[in-house]
Amino acid sequence: MKGKDPSTSRAGFSIGVYLNLSLGAVFLVIAVATVFLVNYFMRERALEEAAIEAEMLLDHNLAIHTYFNGTLKPALFAQIPEARSADHFDPVWMSSTYAVRHIDQLFESLAQKGYYYKECAINARSPENEANEYERAFLEELKTNPQLEKRAEVRSVQGQPYLVYLRRGETMEAGCLRCHSSAEVAPRRMVERYGAERSFNRHPGDLADVISIRIPLQAAYAHIARTTWQLSGAFLVLLASLFTAQLGLVRWLVLAPLDRIREKALLISAAEEHLGGEIPIPRGKELAEMTAAFNALNVSLRQHRDQLEMRVQERTRELAQLNEQLQQSEEKFRTFMETASDLMFIHDREGNFVYVNDTMARTLGYSKEEMIGMPHRLVLTEEELDQGFAKRTEEFLATGRLSIEDNWVTKDGRKIACAVNAVAVFDDHKQFVGARGIVRDITARKVMEAELEQQKLRTLQADRLQSLGEMATGIAHELNQPLASIRLFAEGLLLNLEMKRPPSQEKLQTTLDEINAQVERMDEIINHMRAFSRESSSEKQVQFQPAEVIRGTMKLVGAQLRVHGIQVEVSCSEELPLCVGRPYQLEQVLLNLINNARDALESRQAHRDQVEPEWWPWLGLQGRVESEGRWVRLSVSDNGGGMPEEVLPRIFEPFFTTKEVGKGTGLGLAIVRGIIEQHQGRLEVDNRLGEGVTFSIVLPASPVAGPGPAA
User: Coil, strand or helix: which one is 120?
Assistant: First the structure.
């Protein structure tokens, strides 16, 4: 068992590299995300603080406005009489906007924070309060949107970031119109100072101004940047420390144990003697369990290796024995194939023989060399090729099996009957690749079957003649009755002629009609006997009325039964469905069953002392329809006491009889059942021990004709 270092056959980084890079990437992502979030929240905090400063500055200046307008100005107006003059104007204490602007300038000179505060308006009285483009746009928006109160956003002014805060200012009141309605009513000194064009024509409710404040953000942003870099440096140092620490831990806890397992695995793959050794168990539950499992696997592999070597040796010996047995079996099989009495073959997908045994070649008159490669169609007769060969081949490919009786032709043109059994051979892809088959020459059997059929027909014919011989007395009685009637009518006519009393024309016609009817009756009996006694092979299958079969049988045997004192009861439906078959054969079957019943009745009558006093021999014939017109049942019943139970299983065996030698018609129940089965029917037996037997002939109704009238 040899191996090599997997790292030499597959490029890639080690687990330690992947693990360190993954952890480093995670640390880096966390550090970057933390720095970004800190920077983001610090900038948001700077904006919040700038907004607070703007609100404080605004509130401070609004307080100044309130103080001027609500406290300072009223007090000064009360103390200085000339101030109440319409022309008097002193912006130092009379204009809160002027005061706020100058106070803001003083505050900025002291604080030096870069604040910007302006109460701006469009067409402001003081140019210092004139709104710029951005402020003017906000003023215009306020006029169209009464809901808008303020706006705050970061803007770059002269390359520096500011929080620009705009807020809706004061609205014109009635007291403001003294200075802002028109130049004519305004204080003269104010008009002289600011002119007569700016900040006039105002109305109560008009927006007076917008307060614009700018809070510088440069210092805050610079502080944030320094903090961000300091935090990034701290995270970098922390990341480097953690990365170094985890490198050592991974090496100590993970990589070193894995290296030991790897080195041991390489040693095992290089030399089998290293199997079974163990490596130390490392720290850590997972690696400890994996190392323990590796050690267990190593020991188990050593044990399996040792067992495998033993099994290989044993298997090698077994295979050697099996190979020897296989050679012997193959020789036996080849001998069996070549010496078999049946014909055996194999052909390929095109139907060409690739193997035939000696029996097949010899039977067909070929040499084995001639048959190898020969199409199997050449051994079939033209009749077989024409009668559904293609359909039969299609069914064979679909089912994979073939079991038929066929006619084959030998090399010299002789025909032999064959029983063919073949199976299809398919490859792993379910594709047909050929067939294997066994053929049995059944020519002798077919000849024997034909001879048996002829013998059966001869037996049937002899049985008919014998039946007619046995029924001669009854038939003679049937013929004597019309002959006696004819004699009586003829003697009556002769007597009338001797007495010279010729009968009237009407009487003569009646007498001749009666004679003619009796002659027709005799002719019907004689014709029926002729038809019944002719060869069965000449009888064709026809549609017939089952009731007529019963009536025809009674014409032959009715008188004989009456002579023997047997009470006969015939029960037949007036209209039974027509059947298809040979009616005179069925008459002979009924005649056989009636004769068997008669023999049973005579046997019981001979032992009259053993039966009930009121018993009288009885025979019944019945014809009825069953299964909604699909079947016709013809029954022969008797009260002859039935058959013993031990006899019943053998009654259909050929040549089996319970009668004395020389007695009976010779037509056994086996042949009777065969005739019924040829008519696609069945023969049923109902044996009632101590009472009697009923034999039933069940025939299928003709599918092409409905019920026919009984003759």
Answer: strand
pLDDT digits (tens, 9 = 90+) for 99-115: 777 787 777 777 667 77
Take residue 441 and report the two structure tokens written for it: 């020459």
- Residue 79 and residue 90: Cα distance in Å, rounded? 14
| Angle at CA of residue 166, ends 161 and 169, nearest 5° | 155
Tokens 């001998």 correspond to 335
Q: How far apart are the first and last CA of the chain?
A: 99
Pair type for strands 618-626 and 567-572: parallel
- Kindly list the distances between the CA atom of residue 587 and the CA atoms of 467, 534, 537, 556, 672, in Å, as whole numbers in the listed order: 11, 13, 15, 9, 11
CB–CB of 673/695 below 8 Å? Answer: no
Half-sphere exposure (CA, 13 Å, Cβ side) for 254? Answer: 12
* Statement: the pTM of the whole predicted model exceeds 0.85: no
H/E stretch holding 163: strand 160-168
Counting DSSP H helices and E strands in the chain, the numbers are: 20, 18
Q: Where are the alpha helices (DSSP H) in 612-705?
A: 669-678
**β-strand 415-426 against 150-157: which pairing, if any?**
unpaired
Per-residue pLDDT tens over the stretch 137-151:
888 888 888 888 888
Helix (H, G, I), strand (E, B) or coil at 612: coil
- CB–CB of 362/343 below 8 Å? no
Q: What is the 3-state secondary structure (H, E, C) of 415-478?
A: EEEEEEEEEEEECCCCCEEEEEEEEEECHHHHHHHHHHHHHHHHHHHHHHHHHHHHCHHHHHHH
Report residue 300 as tokens: 């188990």
8-34 in b/e burial notation, b at 16+ Cβ within 10 A? Answer: eeeeeeeebeebbeeebeebeeebeee
Q: Is 144 exposed, middle or buried (0-12, 13-18, 19+ CB in 10 A)?
A: exposed
| Gap between the Cα atoms of 669 and 248, Å rounded | 105
Which 3 state secondary structure label does DSSP give 248?
A: helix
List, edge to edge, every strand of the sheet that includes 353-356: 353-356, 343-348, 432-441, 415-426, 401-409
**Encoding tokens for residue 277?**
């050794």
CB 673: neighbour CB atoms within 10 A? 18
- Give me 702's structure tokens: 């003709």
From the list 625, 620, 623, 540, the residue with the least C-alpha distance to 583 is 540
For residue 697, the tally of other CB atoms under 10 A from its CB is 25
Provide the edge-to-edge strand list for the sheet that holds 150-157: 116-120, 210-216, 160-168, 150-157
> CA-CA distance, 424 to 508, in Å (whole number)?
84
Cβ burial of 181 (10 Å; 0-12, 13-18, 19+) is: middle
Measured CA to CA, the distance from residue 108 to residue 113 in angstroms comes to 7
Q: Are 202 and 177 in contact (CB under 8 A)?
A: yes
Q: Cα(256)–Cα(570) distance, rounded to whole angstroms? A: 111
Contact residues for 134 (Cβ-Cβ < 8 A; gap 6+): 155, 164
The two structure tokens encoding residue 49: 């603080």
Residue 160: strand, helix, or coil = strand
Beta bridge partner(s), residue 699 = 632
Residue with tokens 């003679």: 476
Q: Specify the higher pLDDT residue, 537 or 156.
A: 156
Cα–Cα distances in Å, from 617 out to 602, 610, 641, 691?
8, 14, 10, 11
pLDDT tens for 401-447 read 888 888 888 888 888 888 888 888 888 888 888 888 888 888 878 88
